[in-house]
Specification:
Chain A: Belongs to the HypE family. The complex is a heterodimer of chains A (about 350) and B (about 375). By secondary structure, chain A is α+β, with helices and mostly antiparallel strands. Helices cover about 30% and strands about 20% of the residues of chain A. Chain A has nine helices and 13 strands. Chain B has a single domain, classed as 3-Layer(aba) Sandwich (Rossmann fold), CATH 3.40.50. In chain B, strands 2-1-7-8-9 form a five-stranded parallel β-sheet, sandwiched between helices. Chain B has a four-stranded parallel β-sheet with strand order 4-3-5-6, with helices on both faces. A two-stranded antiparallel sheet of chain B has the order 10-13. In chain B, a hairpin with a 3-residue loop joins strand 11 and strand 12. Classes of the chains: A alpha+beta (about 350), B alpha/beta (about 375). Bound molecules: iron/sulfur cluster.
Chain lengths: ~350, ~375
């Protein structure tokens, strides 16, 4: 990120009409200009300003490192409640937080398609900067590459997060035990349906916005509400939705689960849109929700801590962990019947009839 | 969405369940076929089976349009995309159905075929307008519900004289399938057909009305209750069927009166009549050839008929030899009777039609109900 070119010798980037071209990824003057005038401007922090290819980081003593990485590919790039920029920050921070860690640093790498409007890129980077500032986690290093027109979907963003977790904190998808309680931080399906509502050829009118949010402060509040070890598992039900996340946990922990359908909140707009398209909200993506498996004696205090946090105000207990050699996630329906909440087979595709 | 919640009220459901249990005579067995995949889905997803007394059994019929689409037809669509380099568009879950040579439309897409998912045939028309140098084909599937929109776009294409648009028509008809189930020679081979009545289709009946089911009530002496797709609709319809059986009636009753009439939607029927005519015979996956059970495009619209335009051969592709779909779709066997169920045949790797879409009977049982086949694990 070394930029020696004097700004006055160069025409500044034209953010109104300008477009990405192959030179922006060639590592020359134009690449440096893009980094300087866009990325460093927006994401500004001392680490980034050092201008090295990497970042030298401080880590508090008595902790272990947590690292998570995520590639973000989304269409459309802008959707109600967010865009690929903020999403790429939230998604990775949440992956770090789901191990009980405090996220400290982010890196970001951009794959840009030739012809992409600079104005859109500026909007995305600004949103990313806003999300990272709001979360208190700086983007300390990054990279950009440009691919030829037609070889990318505008922008791909890959982010990596680093966080720290105290030596005595052990949170894992493998820790759930029969008798534990399953908590969910709020209503499901908003992100997935907000994105779908904007898809070309589908575009249905809705007031729905994505729930995209960084969850690490909620996690911190939950961990503070119970002794070490009480919170066994944390996970954010993103792609594949709640159903997939719970199946992952039961398989990893070799347990079963029994859910109560009427305890799982679904906004009426989400339920309505799902109905229309023949989709099940249990399989729709979320970007600002988490599932926690907590030992029964401390479930009430953890739930209270969640409800006291803005991102968990609609939290509820949705079920219990059972001993089940088949690792089934079962659900008592609102009707009083029972069903399996299974893994998804392939992508959720709308029904016809 | 108050409207939806009203049809999913758990207390009402338990009340209905109690009434069904009280009125179903313990000394007899009630076997009802829900024709539509939508009903199969509702029964499974809301766990309604648990609320019914043991002697009221629901049998899943062939009413899932994706499940009954024969592999040979999907092969035709893939050939159009791969060999004729057409843009082939279709509805969502068709993309996943396995086709010949280890392909599916989704997999063909990964091999470079231009295959697109659409939500309505009007979108396909737009794609054709936007790509004048490409052939654009709509793989049109479904029962009477999805037929009128297809007819409308064919007429629109004719009005616009759109030369690069065509339809691979695979629309099928509900009453012929029900008739086939009641009369096919295979059934005689398997012995008694244990069906006491039908839960009739909802969306289909909005178009065709309730009248086309009347022959089943009179000729075959089977009650039909046309039912909405909400779980409470289905339960109420089951109760109505139980009452008909108890009183020895066989009538067409309409539970879904909020939408369905006896005549159906005349305007929609007229459009379909203009554009389509009956096929002599059509292959249904799981049922085989069924006479007069599907539609083809009339000669007047031949320019928009992909089968005529591309001279596509149709090759029959049989299901796995041990697949019991035929018996299951006719109510003679249950999914768990099939040797392949949940071992060789799973939703990720379906061998027969019943496993193809989540509305198929094998898939619904696999996805929502298989815990019933093994000892239940109680709470800690
Ligand atoms: S389990 Fe598979 S092979 Fe067997 S009947 Fe069902 S769909 Fe056919």
């Amino acid at each position: 990120m070394n930029t020696t070119a004097k700004a006055s010798y160069q025409r500044p980037l034209d953010f109104k009409r300008g477009r990405i071209d192959m030179n922006h990824g060639a590592g020359g003057r134009q690449a440096a200009q893009l980094i300087e005038e866009l990325f460093v401007q927006a994401l500004d922090n001392p680490y980034l300003r050092q201008g090295n290819d990497g970042a030298l980081l401080d880590i508090p003593a008595g902790h272990r490192l947590v690292m998570a990485t995520d590639a973000h590919v989304i269409s459309p790039l802008f959707f109600p409640g967010g865009d690929i920029g903020s999403l790429s920050v939230h998604g990775t921070l949440n992956d770090v937080a789901m191990l009980g860690a405090r996220p400290l640093y982010l890196s970001a790498s951009f794959v840009l398609e030739e012809g992409f409007a600079l104005a859109d890129l500026q909007r995305i980077v600004a949103s990313m900067a806003h999300a990272s500032r709001e979360a208190g986690v700086p983007v300390v290093t990054g990279d950009t590459k440009v691919v030829e027109r037609g070889k990318g979907d505008g922008v791909y963003i890959s982010t990596t997060g680093i966080g720290v977790v105290p030596l005595d904190c052990h949170i894992s998808g493998a820790n759930a035990k029969p008798g534990d309680v399953v908590l969910l931080s709020g209503s499901i399906g908003e992100h997935g349906m907000a994105v779908l509502s904007q898809r070309e050829s589908l575009a249905f009118g809705t007031t729905l916005v994505s729930d995209s949010a960084a969850l690490h402060t909620l996690v911190a509040a939950m961990l503070a509400a119970a002794p070490n070890g009480a919170v066994r598992t944390l996970r954010d039900p993103t792609r594949g939705g709640l159903a997939t996340t719970l199946n992952e946990i039961t398989r990893q922990s070799a347990v079963g689960m029994h859910l109560q359908e009427d305890a799982i909140a679904v906004l009426p707009q989400v339920a309505g849109a799902c109905e229309l398209l023949g989709l099940d909200p249990l399989y729709i993506a979320n970007e600002g929700k988490l599932v926690a498996v907590v030992d029964a004696p401390h479930a009430a205090s953890v739930l209270a801590a969640m409800q006291a946090h803005p991102l968990g105000h609609a939290a509820s207990q949705i079920g219990v962990v059972t001993a089940d050699p088949h690792h089934f996630v079962q659900m008592s329906t609102r009707f009083g019947g029972r069903r399996v909440v299974d893994w998804l087979s392939g992508e959720p595709l709308p029904r016809i009839c | 969405m108050k409207h939806i919640d009203a049809y999913r009220n758990g207390d009402l459901a338990r009340g209905l369940a109690a009434t069904i249990a009280a009125e179903a005579k313990p000394e007899r067995q009630y076997n009802f076929m829900e024709f539509c995949g939508g009903h199969t889905h509702a029964l499974a997803r809301y766990g309604i089976v648990d609320l019914l007394p043991a002697n009221v059994r629901m049998v899943h019929g062939p009413g899932c349009p994706v499940c009954v689409l024969p592999i040979g037809r999907i092969d035709m669509a893939i050939a159009l995309a791969l060999e004729h380099t057409a843009i082939v568009c279709t509805y969502g879950d068709v993309l996943r159905v396995p086709a010949s040579a280890g392909l599916s439309m989704q997999k063909a897409k990964a091999r470079g075929a231009d295959i697109r998912m659409v939500y309505s045939p009007a979108d396909v028309l737009q794609i054709a307008r936007n790509n004048p140098s490409r052939e654009v084909v709509f793989l049109a599937i479904g029962f009477e519900t999805t037929t009128p929109p297809t007819a409308l776009v064919i007429q629109q294409a004719q009005r616009e004289n759109l030369p690069n648009f065509s339809v691979l028509c695979c629309h099928v008809l509900t009453p012929s399938a029900i008739g086939h189930i009641l009369t096919s020679p295979e059934v005689a081979e398997w012995g008694t057909l244990p069906l006491d009545g039908f839960v009739g289709p909802a969306h289909v009946s909005i178009i065709i009305g309730s009248a086309p089911y009347e022959p089943f009530a009179t000729q075959f002496n089977k009650p039909v209750v046309i039912s909405g797709f909400e779980p409470l609709d289905v339960m109420q319809s089951i109760l109505m069927l139980v009452r008909q059986v108890n009183t020895g009636r066989a009538e067409v009753e309409n539970q879904f009166t909020r939408v369905v009439t006896r005549e159906g939607n005349r305007a929609a029927q007229a459009v379909c009549e203009q554009v389509f005519e009956l096929r002599d015979s059509f292959e249904w996956r799981g049922l085989g050839e069924v006479a007069h059970s599907a539609l083809q495009i009339r000669p007047a619209y031949a320019a928009w008929d992909a089968e005529k335009k591309f001279t596509l051969p149709y090759l029959r592709v049989p299901d796995h030899k041990q697949c019991d779909c035929g018996a299951i779709l006719r109510g003679v066997k249950r999914p768990t009777d099939c040797k392949l169920f949940a071992t060789v045949c799973t939703p990720d790797n379906p061998m027969g039609s019943c496993m193809v879409s989540s509305e198929g009977s094998c898939a619904a049982h696999y996805t929502y109900g298989r815990f019933r086949d093994i000892p239940l694990v109680t709470h800690p």
